[in-house]
Structure to design on (168 residues):
């Protein structure tokens, strides 16, 4: 509100009118929302040391996704939103494949899994080993990956720190 009056939308303005009662403002997209998984703890074989090939250990996962906000048009149907249940099940399936040498490898695989959903714009993955160093609560890594939007669509550009085979 300016001097008790709501600002007027100008011709050509893109956006959605806010009818929340907080004041008439034009909201400008893209509209994004966060989906998260907190403190998912699984047990599996991970690590480069000999004992880590034989002794399962607890690993904690924290995953934050930023997705295109389709909630208003979701029609209260799960298939119209990014499902945290699918993310959890995907992480479980990845970890159940068998021994993984590096937490970095597992984090990258989870990032790729999450970014397969075209509504997901960015992801932050934290993977922590809980049992490997007695004096710590946890040790691990955190990565962030994102995609770039292109004009009228979304083009995936995933930089995973490796050179594509055709460029090597």
């Amino acid at each position: 509100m300016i001097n008790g009056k709501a600002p007027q939308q100008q011709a050509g303005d893109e956006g959605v009118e806010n009818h929340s009662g907080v004041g008439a403002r034009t909201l400008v997209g893209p509209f994004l929302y966060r989906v998260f998984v907190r403190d998912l703890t699984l047990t599996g074989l991970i690590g480069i040391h000999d004992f880590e090939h034989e002794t399962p250990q607890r690993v904690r996962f924290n995953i934050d996704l930023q997705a295109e906000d389709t909630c208003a048009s979701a029609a209260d149907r799960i298939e119209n939103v990014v499902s945290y249940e699918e993310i959890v099940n995907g992480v479980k399936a990845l970890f159940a494949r068998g021994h993984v040498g590096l937490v970095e490898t597992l984090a990258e695989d989870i990032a790729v899994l999450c970014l397969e959903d075209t509504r997901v714009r960015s992801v932050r993955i934290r993977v922590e080993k809980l049992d490997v160093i007695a004096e710590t609560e946890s040790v691990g890594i955190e990565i962030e990956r994102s995609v770039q939007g292109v004009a009228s669509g979304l083009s995936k550009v995933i930089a995973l720190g490796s050179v594509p085979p055709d460029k090597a």
Remarks:
- Helices lie at 50-54, 84-96, 103-115.
